[in-house]
Write a structure and sequence with these properties.
Elements lengths: L1 H6 L5 H14 L2 E2 L2 E5 L3 H24 L1 H28 L1 E3 L2 E2 L6 H24 L8 H16 L1 H14 L3
Antiparallel strand pairs: 1-2, 2-3, 3-4
Helix pairs in contact: 2-3, 3-4, 4-5, 5-6, 5-7
Length: about 170
């Protein structure tokens, strides 16, 4: 799987993931019965290509100007929770136990509520960078602000992670 993923520049990754999940799910027993995974790798490839395109566009936008980077960050932040909800829905809809398909009943609104804390610190840093005039060396206050936001974000990582996991586990069916 790894070799094919590397040789195909990660285009084989969905097929590798399906093979891996089928193996692990098939060897995971719940009540003496194995789980099953039934996803179509071609559908997963579309999702991977969409995410890769978003990340490339974000990277390219940041090289043009901080404002373009901020706009790209806001667009990615606006779309990411909906993609998370869709990916959880897809994965559970393609997972079965004793012939019964699992479901994910989370809402897009719940995904936004769970992921908003993840994007707040990044938005502050990128927003401050847009406020800095085009200079070779950013001012001292920008560095201090970035360090403060990073320290606060690191201190809040357990809470961020709890919100995300609560959203996931509260909506399994």
């Amino acid at each position: 799987n790894l070799l094919l993923t590397l040789l195909t520049l990660s285009l084989y990754h969905p097929w590798a993931k399906v093979r891996r999940l089928r193996y692990f799910y098939g060897n995971t027993l719940v009540g003496s019965q194995p789980l099953g995974f039934h996803a179509d790798p071609r559908k997963m490839l579309r999702g991977y290509l969409l995410v890769a395109l978003m990340l490339v566009l974000y990277s390219v936008a940041g090289h043009f100007s901080p404002l373009a980077g901020l706009l790209a960050f806001v667009i990615v932040a606006a779309i990411w929770p909906a993609l998370l909800k869709s990916s959880l829905q897809f994965r559970l809809a393609n997972t079965s136990w004793r012939g019964l398909r699992l479901r994910f009943r989370g809402t897009v609104r719940g995904a936004y509520a769970a992921l908003l804390p993840f994007f707040g610190p990044g938005l502050l840093i990128v927003g401050a960078l847009v406020a800095v005039p085009d200079q070779e060396q950013p001012p001292l206050w920008y560095g201090l602000l970035s360090l403060g936001v990073l320290a606060l974000a690191l201190a809040l990582v357990p809470w961020f992670w709890w919100k995300l996991k609560k959203y996931q586990h509260d909506h399994y069916a």
